[in-house]
Write a structure and sequence with these properties.
The protein is of the alpha/beta class. The protein is 44% helix and 22% strand. It folds into two domains: 1-101 and 253-354, Isopropylmalate Dehydrogenase (3-Layer(aba) Sandwich); 113-248, Isopropylmalate Dehydrogenase (3-Layer(aba) Sandwich). The protein has a ten-stranded mixed β-sheet, sandwiched between helices. The chain has a two-stranded antiparallel sheet with strand order 6-7. The radius of gyration is 20 Å and the shape is globular. The two termini are 21 Å apart.
Amino acid sequence: MKSYRITLVPGDGTGPELVAVAKEILEKAGELYNFKFEWDEKEAGIPAYEKYGDPLPEETIESIRRNKILYKGPITTPVGTGYRSVNVAIRKLFKLYAIVRPAKAIPRFSSKFPDVDLIVIREGTEEFYAGIEHRINTVDRERIAAESIGIVTRETSEKVIRFSFEYAKKMGRKRVSAVHKANILKESHGLFRDVFYEVAKDYPEIQADDYMVDNMAYQLVAKPELYDVLVTPNLVGDILSDLTAGLVGSLGLVPSGNIGDEYAMFEPIHGSAPKYAGQNKVNPTAQIMAGVMMLQHLGEMEAADLIEKAVFKVIEEGRYVTYDIARVYNVEPVGTKEMGQAIIKKMEELYSKG
């Protein structure tokens, strides 16, 4: 039996309860398809900060180095003050230059845009997320200005763009669109656009085109079914990936893969929702679908496909769903754990039918 050793970080807020449900589903997939997980559980975020004074302890970093793959729950990032984003730190430390965020409509639930099937791939380590910024103070320490510097390099742009074309080939996609603001950011986003067309020449079988981000925001709301894979600089992709989550109905549905040459991290795109912690209330779908992306990364495509089909079917049927989905259908909600159990039962049902 194949065994995969994975660094597991439950996160904080609602993270631990989401991860507990997703783990059970992943382990059921392993049971059905003859592989297993060895979970190397570590801490990050608020629990680590309270215990060690560091939101990303060295012990957690070393675990990721050993295992190469991190599966994590959501982690709180303080706004304006406090420690910097743990996610950004991990991406930079392990050179996770490609952030992959799929958004796929779920039958019946995604009623406003039923044909959406998009993948946003954004660069994950550079531009305005590089953390190169400073404030300008007066003598009495009043902040009168602040400056942030966005760095875009040819090397990393080429890596994420080539990754996007290769990912499109792997997933059977036919079109890759670069999204940027090169009319204003002529040097940084202009470089990204130029590299895009240089790389596109190596993939003549895939349609390649580009859009300004403001135009693409309009296009995604007006006719999202026309688009396939979008590749972007960091900030643009962060914003558009939340927009595409809205198209399919909820941030609670959408996962994220953070991938580099050697390491990878998989997580939901939503926050930790600490006000709901311990209430067995929140939607586990994005956490589970992050596990689906991890299985795809490991090459366990059949298991990944089974979980996705089971999740989508449970949501489509609408009988065992959490409050955010239940209110759309005007039905009584179930808890996080109960939705997870319904997905496992649906997996067993689908597997038995072949």
